[in-house]
Amino acid sequence: MTERHDYEERKVTRYSNLAYSGIKLLDISCKFENINYKPQIKSAIFALWHGWQYGLLGVPARKDLHLLISPSLDGEIIARVTGKLGFSTVRGSMKRDGTKALREILKILKADKSVAYTVDGPKGPIHEVKEGVIRIAQMSQKPIIPFVPSSNWKIEINSWDKYKIPFPFATVKNIYGKPIYVPREASEEDIEAYRLQLENELFRLAEK
Question: Where are the domains of the chain?
Answer without folding.
Answer: 2-207
